Structures are given as C-alpha cells and as structure tokens.
Amino acid sequence: MQLYDYFRSSAAFRLRIALNLKGLGYESIAVNLVANEQRDAGYLKLNPLGLVPALATPEGELLTQSVAILEWLEEEYPEPPLLPADALGRARVRAMVQTIACDIHPLNNLRVQRYLMDTLEVSEEAKLAWYHHWIALGFAALEQQVAGDRYCHGDSPTLADACLLPQMFNARRFQQDLEPYPRLRAIAAHLEQLPAFAAASPEAVAPA
Length: 208
Ligand SMILES: N[C@@H](CCC(=O)N[C@@H](CS)C(=O)NCC(=O)O)C(=O)O
What we know:
- The chain is α+β, with helices and mostly antiparallel strands.
- The protein has 2 domains: about 1-80, Glutaredoxin (3-Layer(aba) Sandwich), CATH 3.40.30.10; about 85-200, Glutathione S-transferase Yfyf (Class Pi), Chain A, domain 2, CATH 1.20.1050.
- It is about 55% helix and about 5% strand.
- The chain has a 4-stranded mixed beta sheet, with helices on one face.
- Glutathione (GSH) binds near residues 9, 11, 53, 67 and 111.
C-alpha cells in the first residue's frame, strides 16, 4: 500500500497508527503541506479534496478520507480488531472518532487557519484562541465519553485511540491547556508507550 502522508498531518497519523496496529507495511509518499503540495495538479488528480491522507490499495484503488480508510482497513484486515465486538461498543467508539474527526479537526485544519489569517486577516492571537476553543469544546465532551484511563474504550486499542493521540499531538503543538482533561492525558500517556503508536508519531516519521 502507498500512503500519501505528511509527518505532522494528524489525519495521516491516524492511518499510520492503524496500519502499524494491523502489522501492514506501506510506502509513505510525502505530500508537503507547508509547501502546498496538496494543491499540486498531480495530487489533485489523485485526491480532488486536496487533503492528506490518501491510500492506494494493493489493487491500485485510491482511497480518501481518513475515517473511511480506517473503516476500510478494519473490514479488509480485521485482525486485530479496532472496533468492539458489540454494536453498542462500536457506536460508542465511532462517536468518539466523530467527535474528533468531525467536530474538532476540520475547524482547525491548515486551510482554515490560512483562511483566518490570510483572508480574514485575524491576528495570530485570535487564530490561536479559535484553535483552542474548538479543541476545548471537543475535549470536554471526550473527557466524558471515554470509558477508561488506558484506552478510550475497553482493554485494547480502537479507532478512537487512533484518533485521540494525533489530536492530543495537535493540542500540544499549539500549547493547549490540557489540565482539564486528566482522563485524556492518562490515555495518551499510555498510548504513547505502545510501539504501534510511537512508531507512527510525527517525531518518529519526521524527515531527517
Ligand atoms: N476529513 C479529512 C481531513 C484531512 C485533512 O484535513 N488533512 C489535513 C492534514 S491533517 C490537510 O491535508 N490539510 C491541508 C490543508 O488544509 O490545506 C480526512 O479525515 O482525511
């Protein structure tokens, strides 16, 4: 498989975690977001969204949208399972995934930050306040949604954990106050120690 990837992309980080957890090898193809390579004509042909990640399957199909890809990986490569066996558990895990992937991340994406700064000409301070605001709202809900202090749900990693750690990375990168979220901090501290998560981190995959 080929992953169209950027080391600091938290949506790509989700996929790196899931691929590692499932023991699937992949080739990482860097799309430099700072250099705006996601808007290059060649990449737009592959992924008209102009966003990272995208995944080329072994059959050469091109998949987009990280959560759709997570679900595809789960269906195609069910071991180890990253969704609970019971329908209620799956609904809870998917709710946490969506809290992050729908209600936090898109509001703080690079293109949103660029629009705020370059088009609306808000100050760096106002942009940071915006960024923190949406994470704080989402994390306050997640702090209630998580069901443990090692994993978001149950006794093994799920898709929710694959989304939480990258979002924590973003929060830390932009100096978010994480004091109000002791359960999220405990889960993240545990996940960071797991080889599949550690090997997927931006620090581990950053270009030399
Ligand atoms: N809903 C998309 C979001 C992907 C996304 O926003 N990716 C970011 C990096 S984490 C990106 O490519 N940003 C480039 C930009 O905003 O121009 C997904 O989950 O795959």
